[in-house]
Design brief:
Structural class: alpha+beta
Number of helices: 7
Oligomer: single chain
Shape: globular
Strand order of the largest sheet: 1-5-4-3-2
Mean pLDDT: 78
Helix content: 40-55%
Radius of gyration: 16 Å
Low-confidence stretches: 112-116, 133-145
Number of strands: 5
Strand content: 15-25%
Length: about 140
């Protein structure tokens, strides 16, 4: 799991995340508000939500190669408050293919260096946590392997 502390508050970080998802041409399939669910059963929880999103074109191609990858798709980012900080977390999507037996799935994955399921997760989190200006100034928006 990759965790990034945000430089902004919960609301601003969430807004940045949704703007970044939209900017990358991804689809938000669901928002799961854990704090609201806790409140519904009389419990308290600091703000925490899971954003479920992805790219059906990219995800479908991967699932056509190995249906088991469908268990991990769409992708998810967890956004939560803890103490005086706001954090974002996600799994490394490259790990999706490590446990798959089909070599073709791994080859397919690596053919898409800027695939909407690979690099943009890091960009989405960086833009959400740090803001676009800081990300650009630090060079965190460049593709890395």
């Amino acid at each position: 799991m990759i965790v990034q502390r945000s430089a902004a508050g919960n609301g601003d970080t969430a807004n940045r995340l949704f703007e970044a998802i939209k900017r990358h041409g991804l689809t938000v399939f669901a928002r799961i508000d854990h704090a609201a669910a806790a409140s519904d059963v009389g419990l308290s929880l600091a703000p925490e939500e899971v954003v479920v999103f992805g790219n059906p074109l990219a995800g479908t191609a991967l699932m056509q190669e190995d249906r088991r990858i469908g268990l991990e798709l769409p992708l998810r980012i967890l956004l939560w408050e803890q103490g005086d900080g706001v954090f974002l977390a996600h799994g490394d999507p490259r790990d999706l293919v490590l446990g798959m037996r089909s070599n073709s799935t791994g080859r397919l994955w690596m053919q898409w260096p800027s695939c909407s399921l690979r690099l943009p997760l890091k960009r989405l989190v960086n833009r959400s946590a740090l803001g676009a200006r800081v990300v650009g100034a630090l060079g965190l928006d460049r593709e890395v392997s």
